[in-house]
Design brief:
The structure is a homodimer. Chain A contains 21 helices and 3 strands. By secondary structure, the first copy, chain A, is mostly helical. The first copy, chain A, has 2 domains: about 5-105; about 175-510, Orthogonal Bundle (Neurolysin, domain 3), CATH 1.10.1370. Chains A, B: Keywords: Carboxypeptidase, Hydrolase, Metal-binding, Metalloprotease, Protease, Zinc. Chains A, B: It catalyses: Release of a C-terminal amino acid with broad specificity, except for -Pro.
């Protein structure tokens, strides 16, 4: 482990940038505390502590906001921006990321931010209730207010082409409708073509009996810890805990924590949520330690983060190369004995269905496309909130051939809108696209890392090309530098065709002997 | 649960005080975050996270310090102090506690505070090593610098009679040498008289075979959770975890966490550290919820806090009334079957020995007296650090008739000095004194709360008289108001004579039938 202060000295030499980083340190510390508070809230906090916790979080978030508005910081950033050409990539990264944070903080007046916080906090409670009761009308007025707030935010943040761009940019720096429209226009018909062939092909089952089989939670816990060992998890730098919804959070480069959830049935759900979160965590763990305590010492965007989790979950974890290891662990811990081929089919079921979070690799992006279109229309005002359930159901039937019987499995299924997260969903598909780009590079250049399940080799490959940079480059630039191209549907279509159409005929080559 | 904002409105009506509380909220939030960070550090944090954690803590502590020096806060406090007579007790409490914090923050210049932090952080590491190697010389230069820093701090903080007073006051507002000298002058000879009689009396054993007996840690965990249930622990407002050294910490009135440690041998050690921490925690849990987010919504001092832990540990937990419950749990969980009388003798061994943390109720305050005298002399300069080991050993032999064979069981045994905590030790004896005052009040007024092990009644009694007030009154004033007298040796001597000299003859009355 390099000694941070002196090593960082070699990366950040410009006096102005050093002063910016000096100021940033407190913001970093507040982020550290808020991360821990968030982690604790979801894992170990006693229930009644929630009020004190949210009071404290509100104070610290308010302070972070005020620190971003500090005129002295603005002045230093302007000073640095004037000599941008003389700065190195790390220094430029610091200036870019902080300027972006300052710009967003300035654009949204405190009054609107507070209104959004209040409305979304209530809306989340109402959404839970409305989903339980399958009653969209309950949620409608809240969603209307939230959409209105998002539209105002878009105007305040500013955009060139489409108001939705301003929101997309909050989650993925630089992502625009002009990128997503052609991407989905190519991806959606290709996906539907692939899906039709998978469904008639007969190799990938639409259901598997193990999906209904229970398991012993205590044994599953031990198995997941063993799988994390297999993946090379550094227990001195990370934790595995449990929460209602699995997540990854970092308190710094040397303290990254993931959670999973044991439902007691259909063990693949727990396994793949573990591998998914592992992908997120590995990104954080492999950031260059010299970027610690700086605004670029973190994952660069939602899309790039999701590419890492999806790569590990789908390309590595659901690939034939993983079946040997997984079948071994399932046998040892749960007494579940499955031939690798059978296991491969169990973890790769494909079926058009209503719920996004349960969707497979083939259908997943169709769920995102539906949300992308509806969000764009809500923000541009071409669909009203009260038309939403109908629009949702129609589009779902059109895309996937299934129709919700109630809003709970339709328009009310996701928590995101109650949080005000408009523009977030597309980053899931972007993540799938980037994961496929990684697959393509590996498959053409170093296929043995996958076929030989060379986990250390995969970690090093990703660390070198993506992880170590943190947020040094904007996400789309990082992808272009590291993977040699802009995100487009092509790699993802190629990956899906390979895995779901060609691989069944070549599986013997990659599956371990039974 | 009363709604805080409006309820608090009824307590804090003065406009100046309300503005002070508005400013204080961020300080509270920082304290909340720092408490959680401290808890996590000792319980669940991955090892390598320590560097990021201390970096973050340093930033947040620095900010807290700067907030206390805010001239606007000082101005508001002066404004409130000018109309003190028109304020109610809660408002006055807020002004008093914050003024004290501001005064301390102002007195110690940042440069000295930083030097102390640096030296004590190193000294703690060196102390560990020195204790392991039984090498006082290693630790000596650090201790010399620490004593010098404490003497400078005393001068900067100011005092009337004795420089040690300035340090005492840091841990116990208002406590002075002029209180402690007469207290110890009465307590020490009385204790030695009682000790002599106990040792020749033959009832309280000096050792018990169970002290060497191992136990199953997993079963002990379940037993301790059951005992917390018995004590009425509100699991929705608190936690029980494990750490190298047991402690209690609060994140607010509705989130209080205790830890214990399982050594796998001598089960009473785990049991009584649990009951001890429970006493601390109950104090926090029973503070008036309307004091939340204010500087008086916390325990008032180390001494009063310690009185709560000692009361539960010694008066309740080691009393004959507790033996029925404890023997039941020991039998259920550990298969340990003991007659209540035998159990009472096991948990009440008395022996003059070298180590403070293992000391019994009779000898404990002699250990504190030794440290009190030596600290006072170090601070006034009448003993030098290099004379300390000799002075320690001589005094130990004189007080307890035992002499350390190595500095590890003598002058190097406690961590406190390496932390720079001079003036802290006496609060332990003060805690014992106040616990005895509580016993005396109960014993004369409501003995059935003890004899009947009426735990709910005890909680209510303490909550009403002490806990609910938080830091509204200065500690010595709270004691006088609630227990009807100033802390003095009398109650503690009376308690020790009762328990160790008279009770053996009356035990049958209080012990449950076997």
């Amino acid at each position: 482990m390099p000694e941070t202060a002196s090593e960082a000295g070699t990366l950040f030499r410009d006096e102005t940038v050093r002063r910016i980083l000096g100021k940033y340190r407190l913001l970093w510390a507040l982020g550290h505390a808020l991360s821990l508070m968030g982690w604790d809230l979801e894992t170990y906090m006693p229930r009644a502590g929630v009020k004190d916790r949210s009071t404290a979080a509100e104070e610290l978030e308010g302070l972070s906001h005020r620190l971003l508005l500090d005129p002295e910081l603005d002045k230093l950033l302007r000073e640095a921006e004037e000599k941008l050409d003389s700065l190195n990539v790390y220094e430029r990264g610091v200036v870019r990321v902080l300027r972006r944070a300052v710009r967003i903080a300035k654009a949204v007046p405190e009054e609107l931010a507070r209104r959004e916080a209040r409305v979304t906090s209530e809306a989340t409670q109402v959404w839970k209730e409305a989903k339980k009761k399958a009653d969209f009308k309950m949620f409608k007025p809240y969603l209307e207010e939230i959409v209105e707030i998002q539209r105002r935010k878009a105007e305040l943040l500013g955009y060139e082409d489409h108001p939705y761009d301003a929101l997309l940019d909050l989650y993925e720096e630089g992502l625009r409708v002009r990128h997503l429209d052609p991407l989905f226009n190519e991806l959606v018909p290709a996906t539907r073509r692939i899906l039709d062939r998978v469904l008639t092909g007969g190799f990938y089952p639409s259901r598997h009996p193990l999906e209904d089989q229970g398991y012993d939670v205590e044994r599953a816990r031990a198995m997941l810890r063993r799988l994390l060992d297999d993946l090379g998890w550094p227990w001195d730098r990370g934790r595995l805990d449990e929460s209602a919804h699995p997540f990854t959070i970092d308190m710094g480069i040397d303290d990254v924590r993931i959670t999973v959830r044991y439902e007691g049935r259909d063990i693949k759900r727990a396994v793949y949520s573990l591998v998914h979160e592992y992908g997120h965590a590995l990104y954080q763990l492999q950031i260059d330690r010299r970027l610690a305590y700086t605004p670029i010492g973190t994952g660069v965007s939602m899309g790039v983060h999701e590419s890492q989790s999806r790569f590990w979950e789908n390309v590595v974890g659901r690939g034939p190369w993983f079946m040997g290891l997984l079948s071994k662990r399932l046998a040892e811990h749960l007494g579940l004995r499955l031939e690798p081929l059978e296991l491969y089919r169990y973890v790769n079921t494909v079926r058009p269905d209503l719920i996004r979070v349960d969707a497979d690799e083939v259908t997943y992006n169709l769920h995102i496309y539906l949300r992308y279109i509806l969000e764009k229309k809500l923000i541009e005002g071409s669909v009203m909130v009260d038309e939403l359930p109908q629009a949702w159901d129609d589009m779902m039937e059109d895309l996937l051939g299934v129709r919700p019987r109630s809003p709970s499995e339709g328009v009310l299924q996701d928590i995101h809108w109650s949080h005000g997260s408009f523009g977030y969903f597309p980053t899931y598909t972007l993540g799938n696209v980037i994961a496929a780009m990684i697959w393509r590079r590996l498959w053409s250049g170093s296929p043995e890392l996958l076929t030989g399940l060379d986990l250390a080799g995969l970690r090093a490959w990703l660390g070198e090309r993506i992880h170590r940079w943190g947020a040094t480059f904007p996400p789309l630039e990082l992808v272009e530098r590291s993977l040699g191209g802009k995100p487009s549907a092509a790699a993802l279509v190629e990956y899906l065709e390979w895995k779901f159409l060609r691989l069944p005929g070549e599986l013997e080559e990659y599956l371990p002997r039974g």
